């Protein structure tokens, strides 16, 4: 038994010396000192010893245990220290490493153009109004003199949420909402997104931007419309810009017109941007139809007004010479970084 105890001690000390990680040390503790360990099983056999032998072997067993325990403690401390130092070394922050670059976003060309348009109208005393993009058929069509079977509906086919709810095809419904809520004088613009069920190509997008304008007061005439929109064109494109009005038809204005401006690339000479004509179509406009005023509870015998609507994407494309509307909606940084 004595030899066996010495063997256990030597084996334990030798194996502990080779241990490299704390889990190995723990395994050795269990193996030699644990309840089912080697030393414990020797001590269990002590019952069979003679009365003289028992205290001697008992003493030796205690010494062996003490020695193994001391070694365990020593090895554990060394390994724990080593592991701690390794952890610290691994977690060290390299303050010489270059930082991550913070890229700051840019304004979208649509946003930039909208802002300059808004600034011009604000300087003329217009307010800015907002309307929902999911709109009642009533506001988007009916109240604007576009009943169910009107041909203008096929030009402005859209996404129907249900029979009475559509994605608005124009910002014109904001005219109705504002006239219902406010009493004249009204002088507002309303920029925003509109939707049409158009197939995507270089000049069509199912989503695009418009900016509506509406002025209602006593004694408003076509001269006010012309003066306001001509001033806008000059502020937007420069003093040399000339404008002309062509008769047109919109169901919610009477008379209606489209306004062209002299091409700001060639000043009217004729170039690629204006397709050789010297003129660029900027917007639709007209005197608010008396029926539309009546639809909103405004007496056309007392009040009159004018309205206009821009395609903002078109303005952006003309301004920057962009030949494909898709570029405005694809979020391609190679394109956007140019502004
Ligand atoms: N809403 C028309 C469109 O989308 C544009 C328009 C034309 C707006 C004439 C107006 C207007 O306010 O008076 O084609």
Automatic annotation (TrEMBL):
<feature type="binding site">
    <location>
        <position position="254"/>
    </location>
    <ligand>
        <name>Mg(2+)</name>
    </ligand>
</feature>
<keyword id="KW-0648">Protein biosynthesis</keyword>
<dbReference type="GO" id="GO:0000049">
    <property type="term" value="F:tRNA binding"/>
</dbReference>
<dbReference type="InterPro" id="IPR004529">
    <property type="entry name" value="Phe-tRNA-synth_IIc_asu"/>
</dbReference>
<keyword id="KW-0963">Cytoplasm</keyword>
<dbReference type="InterPro" id="IPR022911">
    <property type="entry name" value="Phe_tRNA_ligase_alpha1_bac"/>
</dbReference>
<keyword id="KW-0479">Metal-binding</keyword>
<dbReference type="GO" id="GO:0000287">
    <property type="term" value="F:magnesium ion binding"/>
</dbReference>
<keyword id="KW-0030">Aminoacyl-tRNA synthetase</keyword>
<comment type="subunit">
    <text>Tetramer of two alpha and two beta subunits.</text>
</comment>
<dbReference type="GO" id="GO:0016740">
    <property type="term" value="F:transferase activity"/>
</dbReference>
<comment type="similarity">
    <text>Belongs to the class-II aminoacyl-tRNA synthetase family. Phe-tRNA synthetase alpha subunit type 1 subfamily.</text>
</comment>
<dbReference type="InterPro" id="IPR002319">
    <property type="entry name" value="Phenylalanyl-tRNA_Synthase"/>
</dbReference>
<keyword id="KW-0436">Ligase</keyword>
<dbReference type="GO" id="GO:0005737">
    <property type="term" value="C:cytoplasm"/>
</dbReference>
<dbReference type="Pfam" id="PF01409">
    <property type="entry name" value="tRNA-synt_2d"/>
</dbReference>
<dbReference type="GO" id="GO:0140096">
    <property type="term" value="F:catalytic activity, acting on a protein"/>
</dbReference>
<dbReference type="GO" id="GO:0005524">
    <property type="term" value="F:ATP binding"/>
</dbReference>
<dbReference type="GO" id="GO:0004826">
    <property type="term" value="F:phenylalanine-tRNA ligase activity"/>
</dbReference>
<keyword id="KW-0067">ATP-binding</keyword>
<protein>
    <recommendedName>
        <fullName>Phenylalanine--tRNA ligase alpha subunit</fullName>
        <ecNumber>6.1.1.20</ecNumber>
    </recommendedName>
</protein>
<feature type="domain" description="Aminoacyl-transfer RNA synthetases class-II family profile">
    <location>
        <begin position="117"/>
        <end position="318"/>
    </location>
</feature>
<dbReference type="InterPro" id="IPR045864">
    <property type="entry name" value="aa-tRNA-synth_II/BPL/LPL"/>
</dbReference>
<keyword id="KW-0460">Magnesium</keyword>
<dbReference type="InterPro" id="IPR006195">
    <property type="entry name" value="aa-tRNA-synth_II"/>
</dbReference>
<dbReference type="GO" id="GO:0006432">
    <property type="term" value="P:phenylalanyl-tRNA aminoacylation"/>
</dbReference>
<dbReference type="InterPro" id="IPR010978">
    <property type="entry name" value="tRNA-bd_arm"/>
</dbReference>
<dbReference type="InterPro" id="IPR004188">
    <property type="entry name" value="Phe-tRNA_ligase_II_N"/>
</dbReference>
<keyword id="KW-0547">Nucleotide-binding</keyword>
<dbReference type="Pfam" id="PF02912">
    <property type="entry name" value="Phe_tRNA-synt_N"/>
</dbReference>
